[in-house]
Design a protein that fits this description.
Helix content is 40%, strand content 16%. By secondary structure, the protein is α/β, with parallel strands linked by helices.
Length: 311
């Protein structure tokens, strides 16, 4: 599922955004009628919970709390600690030394899908898996796929009903300047030396809102969403051609899908997790549109193990 915090601030000028919410409402009803034992959500962070003073490629939370970015409510997630710890231990045996957080702060990159699909962040057990999609050096697409598959193998060996969520925009290019171009006061925030003050947070949000309005008016302060690029990467996932993604170079992703296009790696990890847990799967693209006011190629895809889809 794509996320865009702008959906909390800007009303689309046509039906496109409304159809996105209609689709998530339907999925929420399905999830409510048949809740999983646990949700594993692969998602990024936007220099809120993770900053340049310590930026791991991957991190799993054994406890987590939502952040208030974009006015999202603050609430502890119901993280099953023992299961998360066993997952981390198992990944070490599969050559993944992931970082661990006993107090993970998760921003809208992980919370927006949970907000749309659940009755509160603590209504279903959740294990958050952070993937660095913003701060070079980035984990490669291949490594993200392999991590997802390793997570899936862990759960495939357990008698649990699991929902894997990959949270990220498809093509989008938010106006984030390079680190060296930042003023010293903002560098201090990015390095964890100072908190995001309310004024700085409002200014940051307004900068993004202004860019989104300009994009909707036909201006291009950033790269516009790339529909053809979206279709190409979504096809790789839908057709279970995941190893093809190994060749997706970071520079190519940014040049064609924007700086935010790196978030497709969260989708890749989630589909690889399903593949690792259950083998062949069947996937349906439920929604894909560019919503200019949200600056993003927005998409929702569901997938089930092949044997379940056939049943």
């Amino acid at each position: 599922m794509s996320h865009s915090p702008l959906m909390r601030k800007l009303e689309p000028r046509d039906h496109l955004g409304h159809e996105f919410f209609q689709t998530t409402d339907t999925l929420k009803q399905q999830l409510h009628s048949n809740p999983p034992d646990v949700i594993i959500v692969f998602g990024p962070d936007h220099f809120n919970g993770f900053r340049w003073n310590m930026m791991p490629p991957f991190c799993i939370g054994t406890a987590a709390t939502s952040m208030s970015d974009w006015d999202i409510h603050v609430e502890k997630l119901d993280v099953p600690e023992d299961l998360a710890l066993n997952l981390i231990k198992d990944l070490r045996g599969r050559d993944f030394d992931v970082a661990m957080s006993r107090e993970m702060q998760v921003d809208h990159g992980i919370t927006i899908p949970l907000e749309l699909l659940m009755d509160g962040f603590a209504s279903i057990p959740v294990i958050p898996v952070f993937i660095n999609c913003v701060a070079p050096p980035l984990p490669s697409a291949r490594r993200c796929r392999m991590l997802g598959k390793a997570v899936g193998k862990f759960f495939g060996e357990r008698d649990l009903d699991v929902l894997f969520i990959g949270s990220g925009g498809i093509s989008h290019d938010p106006p984030h300047p390079a680190f060296n171009d930042l003023p010293d006061s903002v560098k201090d925030i990015m390095l964890g030396r100072a908190p995001w003050g309310r004024d700085q947070e409002r200014a940051r949000q307004q900068r993004i809102i202004s860019a989104a309005n300009a994009l909707a008016d036909g201006e291009e302060p950033c790269l516009p969403p790339n529909v053809d690029w979206d279709k190409g990467v979504l096809a790789i996932l839908q057709r279970q051609m995941l190893t093809y993604a190994d060749a997706l170079d970071d520079d190519w992703i940014t040049a064609n899908g924007g700086r935010g296009g790196q978030e497709i790696k969260a989708w890749l990890a989630a589909f690889a997790a399903l593949e690792g847990a259950a083998g062949t799967y069947s996937a349906d693209l439920l929604y894909h549109e560019v919503v200019p006011e949200w600056m993003t190629g927005m998409a929702i895809m569901t997938a089930y193990p092949q044997h379940r889809a056939e049943g």
